[in-house]
Structure formats: structure tokens, C-alpha cells
Amino acid sequence: MIKKLGFLGLCLSFSFLVSAQTSFKYGKWHARLLRHDGHEIPFDLDIQQQNGKATFFIENGKERIKMENIEKAKDSLIIRMSVFESYFRVKLIGQDSLNGVWVSGGEKNDIVIPLVASAGARQIPLAQATNANNIEGKWKFEFTRANQTKRFAIGEFQQNGKNVSGSVLTPSGDYRYLNGIAANDSLFLSTFDGSHAIVFSAKIGNGNMQGHYFAGAAANESWTAVKDEDVKLEAAVTSVKEGSDGKLAFTFKDLDGKPVSIQSDKYRGKVVILQLMGSWCPNCMDETAFLSEYYRKNKARGVEVIALGYELSTDATRSVNSLKKFRKQFNVEYPMLNTGATASDPMRTEKTLPQLTPLKVFPTTIILDQNGAVKDIATGFYGPGSGEYHLKYKEHFEQTINALLSQP
Q1: Which residue range is the domain that position 181 belongs to?
Q2: CA-to-CA distance for 169 and 173, rounded, in angstroms?
Q3: Helices H / strands E in the chain, number of each
Q4: What is the pTM of this model?
Q5: Quick count: other Cβ atoms within 10 Å of Cβ 247?
């Protein structure tokens, strides 16, 4: 999914790099990303002492992401995400507060958002409201961009009392784990994962909602939604070009600098899954976790996986280093290749997979049969936060591969 920023659950575990007399107050903390327009993106911290060391948790629903790469820079700590080109640079102020910035790598310049955090539980908007407002189910979303163009999505929500979880699905993937509250006449949802940094706020009517979407440093879109259990989302389409035999041909270097070709003996007679992804892409994180586990369990059946990376920069060192973080985080055993084409390059398809019509979204998953011909192309990936859509994706994926493996 092309770059979006937002909020989720992550765990940072590290020994303090500050002087012995400085320590954090243990327990719940609340943090806020401060946008220049006055809107805030909040998230929760829990700081605990484990094995004589402080352990940080940013909690967002069921997900916890570990961060281990911690550096000291003068009077600050730099805490790097386990995936993505993003990090926190923070200063400790006594035991119960810190401030600094969250930095996320961009195509040309870094995106920098001020950050503050204080000890004590966060006062979640609507938490003190007395009446829950039930929004459970499916919603048809219409977003309006600043230039007044429209985009469409599906909201899929579960609810327990006032507490709401779920996700918003777009043609390129989902906004991962959204959590918040629906009470009285209002809705508040948010998520943060090192790439996404998102808030949804809305007024709730009778079977409809109207609100705003804030993402990252500046994105601000209005949206409306209507309850619709039969809502469908038109998927982006990539296909084999007319007149092609459906066979792909490429050779790119892996993360150790060795060339890997789809036409090598290793892939002959195998079902091959091509993961078109980027290390900047939140949904690619969910897909990498899924494919890495799937490959470990199924490689003996005659299945191979190759990841093709479309990064933010043509700087090979930067791209490889970022992809290596994915490989380490998800214990990826299949080759991850740097295509050298950026995700935003309008010629990315012609430069890498010219047998296909234009690549529309990341991730895109291509399944090749034992003869090397394209048999299935799935655009986008719906992760665990999307509920039944994730289950349907996995079902189609597994059925497609099992059918190919069963052929004589």
C-alpha cells in the first residue's frame, strides 16, 4: 500500500542508555504526535521493569511490535522501529515526561512530527460517555480529498460495549488495527505502527456517520459512511498483457548481492509466489508475516516464494538495509530482491515486469504454476485487523496453490 502513516501496538525493549540516576516512572503513559494544524494522534505507553531493565510497550489492540535498536545521541535516545525507516528521537525530562520527534523516511525528505509523552493513563476521547452507540458491522465509506476528488473504502468493525476495533479497507489494503470508542453521538478511532499514524473522528447518525480522517503530518480528508452489510469494494487490477504467454522473466540481486533469476533451476517445476512489496508498506508487513510462516510450513510441498522490493529510493544501500529489517523481523527464509525501481516510478512495471499491465498497488501477489505461467494475481493484502476479509484472502490463496499442487 502506497505510504500511509498511523497508530498500533508495539513493544520496545531496551536497557537504558542514560545515566544511572535517571529512571522512568513505571506504569501507564500517554503519548501524542502533534501536527502543525493542531490535530493530535495519540497512543498509549506502558513502561515496566523486566530483568533489571526498562521495557516499553506501545499497545494497540492485539498487536505488539518489538524495537531493539536503541542508540544514544548526546542528550537524546534514538529508538528505531524493527521495520520501516522510522524512529523516535526523545529527551527524558525527569521521571514522568519526555519530548522529541517521530521521524519517518520519505522519498526525498524525512517526515518529522513532534512528540510528547507523560506518565499516567490517557484520557481516551468518549471514555467517560455514558451511552454506547453500536456501529458493529460493515460500512460503505466515501472519502473526499482536499482537491474534492473521491475515494471509496469499506469499514469493518466489532464492538464490545463502547469499545470498537476493526479496520478500514481500501483497494490497496487495510488500515490495520483501528481501536477506539463509539459512544453518545460520536466515534473516535486511532492506530500507530511506525508507518500508519491515523485518527478517525465522526458524528454518528441513524445508520450513517460523518467525520474526518487525519493521517501523518498533514493528511486531512472528510468522509461519510452508511451502514451496508452487502458493500463491495472494486479492486485494483493488474493482469498479463494481451498476447503474452504469461511467463515472466527477471533477474535481480538479493540482499547479499547475489543475482536471482526466476528462470533458474531452483524454480523449475515449482509453484512460485511472487510478493511485490516495499519495506515502507504497512500491509506488506502483515503479508510478510503471513508468507514467511506459510513458506516454512509448505516449502517441502514444492512451493517457493520470492519477494520483489520496490523501495522509496534508488539508493541501493538504503533499500537493502531497509529490506534487511523485514528479513530479520519476520525470519524470512525466501529470497528478498531489490528491483532498483521505486514504488512511485511511473515506469516501474516496464522496468521490472514488462509482461504485465501496470502495477497499481503494493503489495501485489502473483502465483505462477509449475511451468512458470501466471495463474493468479491478487492486488492488496487484507491483514488480521480486517476480520473476515483476512480469512477470505487466506482461503483463496491456499485454494489456488493447493489446486496447482494437485495437478499431475
Answers
A1: 137-227
A2: 6
A3: 4, 26
A4: 0.88
A5: 15
